[in-house]
Amino acid sequence: MIFFDFCGTLTATNNTSDFIYFYLKNKKKYLKMIFFFILDTLIIFKNLIFFINKKKLELLIRKKIFLLLKGEKKKDIYKYAKFFAKKIFVSNFYNKKYYNLIKKIGLSRSVYILSASISPVLEEFTKNLPVKKIFASKMRFNEKSVFTGLVDDYLFNKKKLILENFKISELKKSTFYTDNKEDEQLKQFFGKFIKINSFKKKFNKAYTLTVNLKNYRYAYLPGFYYILSRPPAIFYFFLNELFIFFLYFRSLDVFLYYFFYLLIFLPIYEVSSFINDYYSVKKESNPTIRIEKKVKVSLTLFIALRVFYLILIIYVFRFLDNLFFSILISFGLLIIALYHSYLKEEKRKYTMVILRLIKLLPFYFLVADRISFASFFFLSFIINFFPVVFYVYDKEKNLTFDFIKKSVIFYLLLSIFFVFLDFYFLLAPLVTNLLLRYLSFWNYLRKV
């Protein structure tokens, strides 16, 4: 017998969380998407919570994630499972080596899939494979074929699963292929336990195939390509960078200057983003595919429109102080970004650190008379520290890191910290003073 793990072994996706997000997104259940986003992020940060059992916490969060599909019809879940499986093949998010191995050995040996993923995706993925049986987390449906929100979850219970279905003597003659560290507890039961390198890629929910045949024409508009190809960027700009600078400046003027910064910087910098997404990804081993294969964009027209736009910007915004320096720095960042795109992957972490730390310099020149360079650099460092750490770790470990989720959560926590400081240094003395006056007045009444 031959056993295979699923996520990271046969596919590059997490076939539970990625599928649930895919389902909610396509069914346009946006409120549930927000809850999913929060819950899925908590799983990522579980290792930072020292006083709670990590396994129990993850199981609890998974239960809450499963509840997001409660009330959904079985036929709809399997319908979108079919679409999701198709997307895995179209996007080349399946491991051809082991997929073809199953096709070959499945004709002469019994092949089993052993996974904690929910069953609909596995069933659709293995339809054309000679797989004898799938062992997966089973979704419970009621008599009306509606999902109850309950799942027989085998995330940390594979040992019990195989011992209930197979004899140890059978397993000793079998082979198990997996990339999952948790599966090492099963090593003692199998004759051959083959630990493979994880096939997981950046199946970034926010970034994958965002530029398609329906919307690619908007990519020609200056500044639109960056936001179109990286949708959460707009939240990153406003929730992270702008909000933190607003806390520092305490003035609504910062909104206006930051808007000017985006109008100047984005149309220039996004040229490197387009070249990276359209050309450079072809030589990457673990690319994030943002542009659909069928999309054809003219680089000449793309750049020409931005040159015309830049001339217009120089004329319209000529009243801005240091406008020339802001534009010049933006071009400097573009050159570094282009160099970054053509570097070998293992060297990109260094240029990414540089880009991150100086990306806001065009904004600095627009507000240079309002903030010292040291203060500005400190704020930039705070804003970009965790994204840099996540990026470098991702490149070093070759793991799937949802960059946006971690950044957003970090900055929200950081923003809360800033608000706390504001309360402590500004509001706390005021509250204390009022409290002392109240106590003094109360004491006066008591004496009277």
Determine the mean pLDDT.
Answer: 80
Major sheet details: 6 strands, mixed
Described by the principal axes of the CA atoms, the overall outline is elongated
**Spatial strand sequence of the major β-sheet:** 4-3-2-1-5-6
SSE string: EHHHHHEHEEHHEEHHHHHHHHH
Helix content: 55-70%
* Tally of individual domains: 2
Oligomer: single chain
Structural class of the helices, strands and pairings?
alpha/beta
Notes on the structure:
The chain has 448 residues and is an alpha/beta fold. The protein has 2 domains: 2-195, HAD superfamily/HAD-like (Rossmann fold); 216-419, no CATH class. Helices cover 58% and strands 8% of the residues. It contains 17 helices and 6 strands. The protein has helices spanning 17-26, 30-44, 54-66, 74-90, 96-105, 119-125, 158-165, 168-171, 224-229, 233-249, 253-278, 299-316, 323-342, 348-358, 361-366, 373-397, 403-447, and strands spanning 2-4, 111-118, 133-141, 147-152, 175-178, 192-195. Strands 4-3-2-1-5-6 form a 6-stranded mixed beta sheet. It starts with a strand and ends with a helix. The relative contact order is 0.09.
Helix/strand layout:
Elements: E1 2-4, H1 17-26, H2 30-44, H3 54-66, H4 74-90, H5 96-105, E2 111-118, H6 119-125, E3 133-141, E4 147-152, H7 158-165, H8 168-171, E5 175-178, E6 192-195, H9 224-229, H10 233-249, H11 253-278, H12 299-316, H13 323-342, H14 348-358, H15 361-366, H16 373-397, H17 403-447
Parallel strand pairs: 1-2, 1-5, 2-3, 5-6
Antiparallel strand pairs: 3-4
Considering the chains and any ligands shown, give keywords for the structure.
448 residues, alpha/beta, Rossmann fold, 2 domains, six-stranded mixed β-sheet
